[in-house]
Amino acid sequence: MTDTTPPVDLPESDRTESDLPESDLPELVESESLGADAPAADPPLKARVLLPFFVPLFAILIVAVLVLDISRLFLAGTEDSALVIGIVITLSILLGASLLAAAPRLKTASLGVILSVVFFVVSIASLVSLGPSLDTGEAGTTGFQYATGTPTSSVAVEALPSIKFNATAFAAKAGVVQFNYSGATGHTLAIQDPKFAGFLLTTDAGGKKTGKAKMAPGSYTLYCTVDSHEAQGMKATLTVSP
To answer: Given 18, 189, 194, 200, which residue has the most CB atoms within 10 angstroms?
Structure first.
């Protein structure tokens, strides 16, 4: 016995694909652009060549300029100012990184403006300090700045052939002290103190034989930097009085 009950009309929202007539089903269209075997789009020349080449090159250039500019700031000042500059730069980097981390949705254009302002400020500061950071030619090879002005006292040191100085003790007054070096060739005169690193006189022909240094009261060691000359006794004590 067959079921002759007529089909109940269902609302369209409750119908499934099995309840729909074949005429209402969507037609399947075969696409050539889908699937793993579909050909990949060819990236433009900008993405393939220009960006991978110029972006790292530009980044290296920016870093090099910033390093040179910041080094000029350090060279332009004293030890204390260099310490202050280092602390300010470190705190600025930490603060800037914190602000950028707190704003993850910062637009690329805004980030570019911020970095441009930082680069501009550092560049201007380095240009302002360009004069003091340059070597005037009066300093030694390690960058020591010899003092200028009228000396308060002078010290005459002579290198003897016996690998000794003409005296084991010298005296001077605080202020600008002028050193005059002479004697046997092949010897140097230096001050054993980190503050005078780079101060160097020599008895060799054409070498620097006179130099001034600003000295505070205290006791200093004068010595020859050649080989083991200091160990052989080529040193002396300089006492600077107020």
So the answer is: 189
